[in-house]
Design brief:
Largest sheet: 2 strands, antiparallel
Shape: globular
Number of strands: 4
Oligomer: single chain
Helix content: 55-70%
Radius of gyration: 22 Å
Low-confidence stretches: none
Strand order of the largest sheet: 1-2
Structural class: mainly alpha
Length: about 250
């Protein structure tokens, strides 16, 4: 079956946003750094350069939150249209039927949900990275943004005896919910997309390479949405701790 996915691309009206965001309205409201309307810096003051950079990073963080919010609205918009994928396969008379409850429109809604959920996951991880950049500047760690950046920042926080900040950042970095989200994000970008049914072919080494063929793997739209919602709720709690401790 072939459909034109453009036929199913819609954008919610501004008046619909609050109801679409629903219970996460209060969560997103708490994720913005407070910033003054008019900011001036004494360039002769010690560490003025760091103040300038931190203020820029706070602004960038706030922009990332706004982007994340907009992305979430689009994800939830298509989710609310209905994607009946809880039963993503059914066995009938010796055959396997994939997406047995789908009508043509459901494939359209699923496509756009998957399109936006992938970027939602990436934007969320970018939000966490932004906090690490702020910590890197504020505490004069000055690590280069290379592979292992987070790990090196955490190590230096301990050496600097910034234990409270370390605990918050380490908890965010190693939280099981966020690690699950990040693993899915990694699969979206580098491996087979979890929002699509995989081939079912598995290869593994057991002396020689052996192959097994099965139904494949699939992560439902509800599970993908729940993982994000649980992650952002947890992050909100840690962000409030971060604000309290760092006072930036």
């Amino acid at each position: 079956m072939t459909i034109d996915i453009a036929d199913y691309l819609t954008v919610p009206e501004k008046s619909e946003w609050e109801s679409i965001i629903g219970e996460l309205n209060d969560i997103f409201d708490c994720l913005f750094f407070e910033q003054k309307n008019h900011i001036s810096f004494d360039i002769l003051k010690r560490d003025a350069d760091r103040e300038i950079e931190i203020d820029h990073l706070k602004s960038e963080f706030n922009n990332r939150v706004s982007d994340l919010l907009s992305n979430y609205v689009l994800v939830k918009h298509f989710y609310n249209k209905g994607i009946p994928d809880e039963e993503w396969f059914r066995k009938e008379k010796g055959k396997v039927i994939f997406y047995p409850n789908f009508q043509p429109e459901h494939f359209g809604y699923q496509h756009w949900f998957n399109f936006y959920i992938e970027s939602l996951y990436s934007r969320f991880i970018g939000l966490i990275d932004s906090l690490f950049h702020i910590v890197n500047i504020k505490y004069k760690i000055d690590e280069e943004t290379k592979p292992g950046f987070r790990r090196k920042v955490l190590k230096m926080l301990l050496q600097l005896d910034e234990n409270e900040v370390y605990k918050v950042m380490n908890d965010i970095n190693n939280n099981i919910i966020i690690k699950k989200l990040n693993a899915i994000r990694n699969n979206f970008i580098h491996n087979q997309k979890p929002s699509e049914i995989s081939s079912g072919v598995r290869r593994f080494k057991e002396g020689n390479i052996k192959t097994k063929v099965g139904l494949g793997d699939y992560t439902t739209s509800t599970e993908l949405l729940n993982i994000f919602q649980n992650s952002i709720k947890y992050f909100k709690t840690e962000f409030e701790k971060f604000n309290l401790i760092t006072k930036i």
